[in-house]
From TrEMBL:
CoA binds at residues 189-192, 307, 331, 519, 580. This is Acetyl-coenzyme A synthetase. Belongs to the ATP-dependent AMP-binding enzyme family. It comes from Maritalea mediterranea. Catalyzes the conversion of acetate into acetyl-CoA (AcCoA), an essential intermediate at the junction of anabolic and catabolic pathways. AcsA undergoes a two-step reaction. In the first half reaction, AcsA combines acetate with ATP to form acetyl-adenylate (AcAMP) intermediate. In the second half reaction, it can then transfer the acetyl group from AcAMP to the sulfhydryl group of CoA, forming the product AcCoA. The gene is acs. Residues 23-78 form the Acetyl-coenzyme A synthetase N-terminal domain.
Length: 645
């Protein structure tokens, strides 16, 4: 733990929404009297029927309900209720991949009309309340229309990141029985195009339930439209009404499904519901980022991930905010792009992932210092631990030493920020997520479940429910219970390691399960392994993470080939391509080592601990290898490590 502490800036202590005292008072009430606290917070939203039952939750047995007799509509809360005051205010500045392409400005009135049209098109295509709609779209305005249109009519969206392969897309479509997919002709990222419609065409033979594909024209690429199945969005939109009634939704009706990786098996469809989710993230957006009316807020996360769902879309809109949405990547056309966008739109709060910060730090300070960034008030990070060096660079070079940083720890399953500084209340420590959000009760336990008090390091659990918590895994509630609530019975186990320092501040140390965090993207080692063993020439595979300067973690794969197959550089290349094709570019192995054998216990369990050490070149710390069925395997792996490519 770095010893450095940056005290709250005096002006922030005075002026921010949440001062030290206010944080303490609100936090105390939120955990001592959650019913009163969240009943009050629910008033942030417009309810068709206000909730009278606030918290009805238990982690043993698992049953989570918030605001269960409340009725509302999320799209109404994000758009309609703002129209009177903010109809002509900007909702989104949309910035294209390349600065020379045309940008778009979308007001709340325009958002309303386009979302209504989208909703009417979905209805015409037969979509009804409760139906699952899969979105496979780039970061273009239409993805926000599509998500909000689903929310408007009570359909459940499942956004699949547009970098995933056809195979991965098909699996996610099938898991939630979607009959409709919304996509675009192509996506753009960093000057390259991604053939999204073609990927959908390739996926659908493996997802036979889909009978409609709604296609947004974006790049104008030549694509094939299948008669009776494929519909152009712009053609359908022209023929529908520009108004669509909202569907009243129970607070506990599902709002969306978002697939994320676990340590075993296929990705899980995490289900979030309407009322608690929106209440919580709306409060988080206002307090953690200290959003003030008229500020320009930019969360750089893609809508394919939870950070995008909560902070690119729903939370800012729920607060009537002005946001930036960006199609491209941090370093295209060059490493100044983020900072130029900040200057162009006078961004006040900027939120991104440590991996982007590290990559831009590597490009050198000039790309930053030649821009103004005077509009910036606050910086945020999420998605993975931020190393103190990157934190300091973000603070001093990007923020000129005057913008507080909020290092927000949370997860797809938590819906919103869980452990985070408040800029007017929390002293900052580079690398520490610091202090719990309202209603969040963290606890550290050892591997046997003993509670660790005071200064300690252990496994991070959360003791009680918070409104934005996921309610289930789609189609597999038992898996939800087993994954999160059985390791430490009656507690939500985060699968993250964590230290608490002498001041009571929390430092997330990273996953303690077999989930990798590669450039802020969650990836199950099991998913990469199963992609590898599905290759004809591969007999076995084991995947571990290793420290990577920019990505945080890199993907290191050990591959055992079928008997008689010769290892070669070409084959290594093919196998990496194979994983890329099976899952998507984000899963491409960084390093691959052929392994004649893998270290296993006598019962056949692969000893990943040893594989991790070898991947880290840390050969002197292998620990006890006497329990291996064949300890000589380890020597071979160490000797062969030069052969990885
Ligand atoms: C990691 C992203 C350290 C953590 C919002 C968690 C973090 C996983 C932080 C969830 C942070 C997220 N500091 N680690 N500020 N934020 N993580 O579901 O390991 O994509 O379990 O949600 O990212 O990733 P997910």
């Amino acid at each position: 733990m770095s010893g450095k502490t940056y005290p709250v800036f005096e002006t922030w202590a005075q002026n921010a929404h949440i001062s030290k005292q206010k944080y303490e008072d609100m936090y105390a009430q939120s955990v001592n009297n959650p019913d009163a606290f969240w009943a009050e917070q629910a008033k942030r939203l417009d309810w068709i029927k206000e909730p009278t039952i606030i918290k009805n939750t238990s982690f043993d047995p698992v049953s989570i309900k918030w605001f269960e007799d409340g009725v509302l509509n999320v799209a109404h809360n994000c758009i309609d209720r703002h129209l009177e005051k903010r109809g002509d205010q900007v909702a989104f500045y949309w910035e294209p991949d390349h600065p020379d392409q045309p940008a778009q400005v979308i007001t709340y009135n325009q958002l309303h009309e386009r979302v209504c049209r989208f909703a009417n098109v979905l209805k015409e295509l037969g979509v009804k309340k409760g139906d699952r709609v899969t979105l496979y779209l780039p970061m273009i305005p239409e993805i926000t229309y599509a998500m909000l249109a689903c929310a408007r009519i009570g359909a459940v969206h499942s956004v699949v990141f547009a970098g995933f392969s056809p195979e991965a897309l098909a699996g996610r479509i099938n898991d939630c029985d979607s009959t409709i997919v919304i996509t675009a002709d192509e996506g753009r990222r960093g000057g390259k195009t991604i053939p999204l419609k073609k990927n959908v065409d390739d996926a659908l033979p493996h997802a036979l339930g889909v009978d409609k594909v709604l296609v947004v024209e974006h790049t104008g690429a030549n694509i094939t439209m299948k008669g009776g199945r494929d519909v152009w969005w712009h053609e359908a939109a022209a023929g529908v009404d520009e108004f669509c009634e909202i569907e009243p939704m129970n607070a506990e009706d599902p709002l969306f499904i978002l697939y994320t990786s676990g340590s075993t098996g296929k990705p899980k469809g995490v289900v979030h519901t309407a009322g608690g989710y929106l209440t919580y993230i709306s409060l988080a957006h206002e307090t953690v980022f200290n959003y003030e009316d008229g500020d320009v807020f930019w969360c750089g996360a893609d809508l394919g991930w939870i950070t995008g769902h909560s902070f690119t879309l729903y939370a800012p809109l729920s607060n009537g905010a002005i946001s930036v949405m960006y199609e491209g990547v941090p370093n295209y056309p060059d490493a100044s792009r983020f900072w130029q966008i900040i200057d162009k739109y006078k961004v006040n709060q900027f939120y991104t992932a440590p991996t982007a910060i590290r990559a831009l730090m590597g490009a050198g300070d000039d790309f930053v210092t030649k821009t103004s960034r005077k509009s910036l008030k606050l910086l945020g990070t999420a998605g993975e631990p931020i190393n103190p060096e990157a934190w300091e660079w973000y603070f001093h070079v990007v923020g000129d030493g005057r913008c507080p940083i909020v290092d927000t720890w949370w997860q797809t399953e938590t819906g919103g920020c869980m452990i985070t500084p408040f800029p007017g209340a929390t002293d900052m420590k580079p690398g520490a997520a610091t202090t719990p959000f309202f209603g969040v009760k963290p606890q550290l336990v050892d591997n046997d479940g003993n509670v660790l008090d005071g200064e300690a390091e252990g496994n991070l659990c959360i003791l009680d429910s918070w409104p934005a918590q996921a309610r289930t895994i789609y189609g597999d509630h038992q898996r939800f219970v087993e994954t999160y609530f059985t390791t430490y019975k009656g507690k939500y186990f985060t699968s993250d390691g964590c230290k608490r320092d002498a001041d009571g501040d929390y430092w997330i140390t990273g996953r303690v399960d077999d989930v990798l965090n590669v450039s802020g993207h969650r990836m199950g080692t099991a998913e990469v392994e199963s992609a590898l063993v599905s290759h004809d020439l591969v007999s076995e595979a084991a995947v571990v993470g290793y420290p990577h300067d920019v990505k945080g973690q890199g993907i290191y794969v050990y591959v055992t080939l079928m008997a008689g197959v010769k290892q070669s550089d070409d084959l290594a290349k093919d196998l990496r391509q194979w994983v890329r094709k099976e899952i998507g570019p984000i899963a491409t192995p960084d390093l691959l080592q052929f392994a004649p054998d893998l270290p296993k216990t006598r019962s056949g369990k692969i000893m990943r601990r040893i594989l991790r050490k070898i991947a880290e070149d840390d050969f002197s710390n292998l620990g006890d290898i006497s329990t291996l069925a064949d300890p000589s395997v380890v020597d071979t792996l160490i000797n062969d490590r030069q052969n990885r490519s």
